[in-house]
Amino acid sequence: MKKKVLIAAAILGVLCLVAIFLRPREKPFDDSDLKVVRSQIAPEENAFTLIEQASEALVLSEQDVAQFKDNLDPDGEWNAEWVSRVLADNRDALNLFYQSWKRERIQVPEMADFLAEKPYLKDIKRLANLVELEAMDFLKTGRPNESLRLGLELVRFGHRFEGAEVTIMDYLAGIGIKQRGLKMMQLSVGHKLTSSDLLVLSAEQLSHFTAHLVGISNALKLEHSILITTLSNFVQPSIFDGNRLLWNEDKTRLRSADFTRTLLGAIPLCYNQMPTDLAPESKTGFIKYILSGNLMGDAFFEIMAIGKDHVLSRKCRENVEVGATRVLLALRLWQREHGSLPESLDALVPRYLSEIPKDDFDGQPLRYSREKKLIWSVGSDLKDSGGQERNAKNEILDFVYPVDF
Q1: 253-308 pLDDT per residue, tens
Q2: What are 401's strand-pairing partners?
Q3: CB-CB contact of 141 with 257 (8 Å)
Q4: Within 13 Å, how many C-alpha atoms sit on residue 42's CB side?
Q5: Side-chain half-sphere of 291: how many Cα atoms within 13 Å?
Q6: Radius of gyration of the chain (CA)
Q7: Residue 189, Cβ neighbours under 10 Å: how many?
Q8: 29 within 8 A of 254, measured Cβ to Cβ
Q9: Three-state secondary structure of 175-227
Q10: 358 forms bridges with which residues in the sheet?
């Protein structure tokens, strides 16, 4: 009996393999809608040319880089002598970086495949740290207006970087640059600003610097193109061509394209409206991989697609950061004119805000408490914890923004 079962299983296995090999080849899959046509930008018009020059002018030791964290932390140790020395040493780099902001267009080097390195990202982050350090120095020396302006310009640059036909890694770097600028604006608004017009202008301009939806779309499309190129080069179709058990480029393109289109469709949605599982479905089990007729393509696609959906939750957090900063600016204006904070954010509309910025996680207006002096978002758990940032297990609950004035 046992022998008959084994024979039957073997026959079934052979039939499955025959079915795979005899299955007609699929028509080439059309993913032309996912192509990004790279812009042609002359070096003298490209802000990246000046950024490269600024990178070459950086004068930072590893010890200097390590000290950024303490000196950029509002509650950390401020070493005025070190700050003065680092800003002086890097004045040429900063000036070149500031000049790059005046150029309207940015284009980073094209990425051929996932193995290509991006050394410029480290230098751009260090340049952004220097800008943040200069803005913090303005605060420490009683110049909050200059700090607020510099923070806004850093946000503007981060937004333009997001839209520069970049990959997801670059886009996330753009978010990081934006967050540095927003942090300086949030700190500046708590100081004694001399210009209400600056607060009004900053709040209005920030409304244009929410997540760069076209930038996210282009990043996801570029990731699709790079993934296909990487897979094709790595698996070497010349070896596997015709062997549909191991490699089927059309199927791989199809999975990647379907996954990319799912992510693209979720870009304009709030977090609670997005599909509950945006990650690509894994073909669990070796047999399922074999029966798919694309063993190598499926395996490598799933490895390379890991984490791509994360950019959408970061998009929501980015919009919350911008919205909360706008609310802080409007609250500061209200306080300057009325001597106290309003009971609710509704009082800020329409004089200070055209509408209350929404929480991009649940689509509701951002929360606010006059008593707690807090603005908050419900975060990715979609539960309103009343402005509680973490629980006893140190898990993140709400995203919280103190009203320190």
Answers
A1: 888 999 999 999 999 999 999 998 776 665 555 556 555 667 777 877 888 788 88
A2: 375
A3: no
A4: 2
A5: 10
A6: 26
A7: 25
A8: yes
A9: HHHHHHHHHHHHHHCCCCCCCHHHHHHHHHHHCCCCCCHHHHHHHHHHHHHHH
A10: 365
